[in-house]
Design goal:
Arc Repressor Mutant, subunit A; 3 domains; 5-stranded mixed sheet
């Protein structure tokens, strides 16, 4: 590495080669003539060849200089391209963001945030991998994405959570005498109603069953589905009461549905950015995370 020219030496050489004069090169580089002369001599010493034949009045390029100029200009162009490329990446003017999200998040919370991000950073490509809840952690650990948006049911070694949406489970149904809006509902009261919930093994279902056990009740599960959005659609058709995160209702265009916060016990269902602990995010991915942490957008 000690024999490699410095950027300042290469710039001095190119300037002198193209202008034919040390004084003109010095003016172009905003340096003194002695400084340019020193840079040229240092470069010649490193390369082991003379680049210019000097006399008191003239400066003549040598054959070595004629051969070296192409390398020097190409090296400077590559360094400039490197700086430009990294500046674009750091400034989020280009790049790629890969996100893992469960189907419900991909259908509700993610689209408006994605729209805001692309409006601000049109040169960035965003790839969304919608995964089953059971494959969410595996996708993150395998580093197939930069980060995920979802909920960890329990801490996972190697993963970190940054919660940006704090939520509670709520019962959602058509408004009516048996289901007045605005009032909390206990799990014991919920046990008297037919439920629409996700299948066993899914994150929300585990929390529902744990809450029912804590309340000492047995729930009447009328329908089991794969997606929380499907549960809401069935609730809107009068097929039962859906138990979902309360914020989900903001993404459903059905004014007939009302949500009642579940209590005794209250169950948190927070949404977070989930990523590898020791993996630094590239600027485009970090910009997307910062947008999420600033607060999710609503449609």
């Amino acid at each position: 590495m000690r024999t490699l020219p410095s950027v300042r030496q290469l710039r001095a050489f190119v300037a002198v080669y193209r202008t034919g004069q040390v004084s003109a090169a010095a003016a172009q580089l905003a340096l003194t003539q002695p400084a340019v002369t020193v840079l040229l001599r240092e470069l010649e010493a490193k390369l082991g060849v003379r680049l210019f034949d000097r006399s008191t009045r003239t400066l003549r390029r040598t054959e070595a200089a004629a051969e070296a100029i192409a390398y020097a200009e190409r090296a400077l162009a590559e360094l400039e391209a490197l700086g430009t490329s990294m500046a674009e990446l750091a400034g989020v003017r280009r790049g790629r963001v890969r996100i893992a999200a469960t189907a419900t998040v991909a259908q509700t919370l993610l689209p408006p945030v994605l729209r805001r991000f692309l409006d601000e950073h049109p040169g960035v490509k965003v790839e969304v991998e919608d995964v089953a809840p059971t494959g969410f952690v595996e996708t993150l650990l395998a580093e197939r994405v930069d980060f995920g948006i979802g909920t960890l049911e329990q801490p996972v070694p190697g993963l970190r959570e940054q919660v940006f949406l704090r939520d509670n489970l709520a019962a959602v149904s058509l408004a009516g005498p048996r289901f007045p809006s605005g009032k909390p509902i206990t799990w014991r009261q919920l046990a008297a109603l037919p439920l629409v919930t996700v299948k066993p093994g899914y994150g929300v279902r585990r929390r529902i069953e744990a809450a029912a056990d804590a309340a000492g009740v047995r729930l009447q599960v009328a329908h089991e589905v794969s997606l929380l959005t499907t549960a809401l659609a069935m609730a809107a058709s009068g097929l039962g009461v859906a138990v979902v995160p309360a914020s989900l209702l903001a993404y459903v265009a059905d004014a007939r549905l009302v949500a009642r916060r579940l209590t005794r016990p209250a169950v948190e269902r927070n949404t977070a950015v989930v990523s590898k602990q020791e993996r630094a995010l590239m600027p485009p991915a970090q910009a997307f995370v910062d947008l999420l942490l600033a607060g999710p957008a609503h449609p």
